[in-house]
Amino acid sequence: MNDANIYGLGEKLFTSLQKHGKKVAQFLADTDEVNTYSDLLTRSIRTAIKLKAQGIKRGDIVSTCTHNNKDNWIPFLASQFLGAISANFDENLSPLDTVHLLKLIKPRILFVSQNALEFMESCLCKANVNTQLVVFGDSQKYNTFSEYVEPCDEETTFYPVKVENENDIAVIIFSSGTTGLPKGICLHDKCLLNISKANLFKINNSEDKNVVVLFYSTLYWISCVFSLIKCVSNGYCYVICKKFDPANSWRLIEKYKVTAKFLPPYDAIEFLKSRPKNVDVSSLEIFYTGSCPVNKQLMEDLIVALPQTKILNCYGCSETGGVAASFDSTLVAEYKMQLLKPTSCGKICSDLKWKVVDTTSENILGPNEEGEIRVKADTIMKGYYKMDSSSAFDSDGYLRTGDLGYYDEDECFYIIGRIKEIFKYRGWHIVPTIIEDVLTSHPAVREAAVIGVPHEIDGNHPMGIVVLNNGYDNINTDTIVNFVNERVSESQKLRAGVAIVTNIPKTTTGKIKRRALEEIASYKPIIVSNNIKQ
């Protein structure tokens, strides 16, 4: 069937699974199993038939809450076959956020791992939501997933429902909740079908190669949904792992001949620190990083560690269905630009109209002027689930991404941070990532985050929150404060001091949870130093 006649994500995935049937779809790193596309298709069809028999239909919400495993893709694929909506949770999501989202979407059925079962039972009770639970694994209390993949008579004649309206909601992705409660981002079929054409994983002569992709995020995140759709559409193989292990990540590249890999900056740093001896990673052609601002040092370190690999910084957001900007790695001129401009996340995708806007005056800005990045296309989100979404778009219909950045004379884009993370000191805008880069350049500091501590006169005072490297437990925090203050502008000085913590809370894609940090600073006793005149 011609793709031009396909309007539904489910039909696209179904025909792709058929087309690539004999190819390896998944290497299961935790069990050494291998799944073909034919295996995935069969199990997805059986699950769809079972769900349909239970009354699941177009518009119903089917959810999962599980680590990556052999079967976590199946409910997603099956729900798309039926025209249902897929909305997925993460085992590491906070109880507060989980209860909030359960109340918001009220899933009909939720496939849950044994690890997360007790957690989801508690959250469903608090949310007072009646959702059927199905367990990946054994259970005496609930139906198990194994029942959903038992053979059935109808499987040989099954075909996905036809989607007549490409603007129907297919997937709900939850915003990362770095500065507030997560929202449900409604992505329609047209948006998700567009993923198969995106630049990510673009490798020269890929039709003649076995493209193997290594990602760690779960279906809660757009990065996983994006990579799943991209892989199935193109017949790529995906390495499935329960969790990220920086040292083992090198071994997986060697074992499975991984060709494309993504890690957010925080995990990329740990990855570089944990390289085993005598590991062959020559198969790796592309390494992507992104999801938050990437500094020059990390890009340079990756290039040194992986000289045979193209290192790419990319930019995306859930509201656009994934990647919004990147360099095309198959074009020599564009990759040269990435090397010359290591902190650039590339060029905005061709299907997106864009502008950079002054957040106060709403004036459109020119090259090298910092403002909010806004984009427009008929392939971006419809809006937020059960919420007024008018404030998400400006008067011209452009999506307010909330990301602060700029572009240069070559229309290469640079991301500075989130607008909501920015705070003011005496009228000056403070961008946390700028101070964080200075903090992490100190040899004692392993990780750093900066927040604004409210002040009755000045608005906010910058505070550094740090995790120390081994061997620096006895460092005087005045040393860190002075180190930063000697290197930043007057307005950026750490007037609220430095706090030492054992870990900085992040999302699984490496974004700092600013709201959680503010709670830590407000309610928990921490070691604080402020060696500065107010």
Task: Write up this protein.
- It is a single chain.
- Helix 1 (9-19) packs across helix 3 (74-81) and helix 9 (265-273) packs across helix 10.
- This protein has three domains: 3-243, Rossmann fold (3-Layer(aba) Sandwich), CATH 3.40.50.12780; 244-420, 3-Layer(aba) Sandwich (Rossmann fold), CATH 3.40.50; 422-529, 2-Layer Sandwich (GMP Synthetase, Chain A, domain 3).
- It is globular, with a radius of gyration of 23 Å.
- 27% of the residues lie in helices and 25% in strands.
- A nine-stranded mixed sheet has the order 2-1-11-10-12-13-14-15-16, with helices on both faces. Strands 7-6-5-3-4-8-9-19 form an eight-stranded mixed sheet. A four-stranded antiparallel sheet has the order 17-18-20-21.
- The protein has 534 residues and is an alpha/beta fold.
- 49% of the residues are buried.
- A hairpin with a 5-residue loop joins strand 20 (399-407) and strand 21 (413-418).
- InterPro entries: AMP-bd_C, AMP-bd_C_sf, AMP-binding_CS, AMP-dep_synth/lig_dom, ANL_N_sf.
- Residues 435-511 form the AMP-binding enzyme C-terminal domain.
Give a quick precis of the structure.
This protein folds into 3 domains: 3-243, 3-Layer(aba) Sandwich (Rossmann fold); 244-420, 3-Layer(aba) Sandwich (Rossmann fold); 422-529, ANL, C-terminal domain (GMP Synthetase, Chain A, domain 3, 2-Layer Sandwich), CATH 3.30.300.30.
Mean pLDDT: 90
> Which strands sit side by side, in order, in the main sheet?
2-1-11-10-12-13-14-15-16
Oligomer, anyone?
single chain
Q: Please state the CA-atom Rg, rounded to the nearest Å.
A: 23 Å
Keywords: Ligase, Peroxisome
Pfam families: AMP-binding, AMP-binding_C
GO molecular function: CoA-ligase activity
Domain AMP-dependent synthetase/ligase: 16-385
